[in-house]
Design goal:
Low-confidence stretches: none
Strand order of the largest sheet: 1-2-3
Helix content: 40-55%
Strand content: 15-25%
Order of helices and strands: HHHEEE
Shape: rod-shaped
Number of domains: 1
Length: about 120
Amino acid sequence: MLDPARRDRGGAAVEMAIMALPLLILTFMVVQAALVYQAKGLALAAATQGANAARNYGSDATTGRDRARAFLRRVGFGITDTDISASVSGGTATITVKGKAQSIIPWMTFEVSQTAYGPVERFTR
C-alpha cells in the first residue's frame, strides 16, 4: 500500500493546470473592464470640453466639435475610431462622442458613447 504522502504527489500541478485558465480569463476580464471604463471617462471628458466650448457666447457647434477633437488628440489614448457630433439648438449645446475602447481581446469590440450638454450663454437685458 502506498504512503498517503506519495499519493498526493503531483497534485498541486494538476490543480494549478485546472485553475490557471479560469484565473487567466478573469484577469483579462478585469483588465478589459478597466479599459472600457477609461474609454467612457475619456469620451465624457471630451464631450464636456466640447459642450463648454460650444456654449460660450459667440461660439457654435463647430467650435465644440473642434475642442472635443483636440482634447482627444491630447489625451485620447484608450479610445479609437471616434465620431464626434455637435449641435447648438434651442438654447442648448450638445456634444456626443462615440468611439471604441482599446481591446486586449482581438475579436471583441466595445463601443462607448457619452453626451454632454449645457445652456448657451446669451446676453439679456
